[in-house]
Amino acid sequence: MHYWQALRPQQWVKNAFVWAGFLFAHAWHDPLLAAQVAAVFVAFCLLASAVYIGNDWIDRDSDRAHPLKRDRPIAAGLI
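User: That's the sequence. What structure does it adopt?
Assistant: Structure tokens below.
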């Protein structure tokens, strides 16, 4: 559970914008393009999570003193 929280999946919603061009181009009939856009979405989500984890690791000491950030898994010492 703590590892999942560290990935911050609630932030992945922003990555849904990669679907905009696909949808506005009315390309949903192209399964190869849909698979490629889905792969880009997953890649963006994983990359964003990696950046969040790296930032949480670097800022863990200062986050421990913050009233909200101290509950993050890395700052709280749960990971």
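Residues 1-6+34-79 form one domain.
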